[in-house]
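Sequence in, structure out.
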Amino acid sequence: MKYFGGCDVGSTYTKAVILDENGKMVAHTTLKSKIIAKESAEMAMKEVVSQVPDLKSEKELSYLIGTGYGRNKVPFADENISEISCHAMGVHVTNPNVKAIIDIGGQDVKGIAIDTDGTVKNFAMNDKCAAGTGRFYEAMARSFEMSLSDFSKLSLTAKNVIPITAQCTVFAESEVITLVGEGKPMDEIAAGIQMAVAKRCFVMAKKAGATDSITLTGGCAKNDGLKAAIEHVLKLKVVELSVDPQLMGALGAAEFARQKGLA
């Protein structure tokens, strides 16, 4: 049996996936990224290799592809492919009916249109400001003195929405702290945050060619409040993926590796 790997070194988390020659996922992991990208990749690959009894090290993989912002730092990688292409392919092999993605990473937001073969048809990217990214949500959760998981559900109970006007993460955090200090309902403030991010995703979704449905990838795809806000603002159905959405980049990289390794 041949095995193929994908390693997605992101700014906040590093993900790795191993597929067998039939395309079955046999190992995966998600770990907090270290400052040095190479160490993150080594740690993630060591973890997934340990999950496959037939493998002793990543050197025994038939093909390995690195992706993510640290894709050039993946040891033993045969090739590097952009995370945009890898997210498209990861979603394609998970659900070929999905043709549009909003990928919310630690430091950027991307809208991606998928072609019929899993390649990228079109994409748009916001990497100029951290507002609406994973870092932004971490800052918001800190303002509420909550875990990220608890914060992601908070807005679901809100009966009203308190708008958040600041577009910058730093100013938005200050605005939220002021509102909390004034005793405003926390779920309504949270709803305002989710709506603000959903509106930022609107342009990305349109550029990705989304018409009736879209899926979310990246760690923020697990944010229930954001999913609800996106459905409300974009008037699109958010398709749930059967595989952890945070693994899409690594899965796509592994699938590219499988295709190249078997060619």
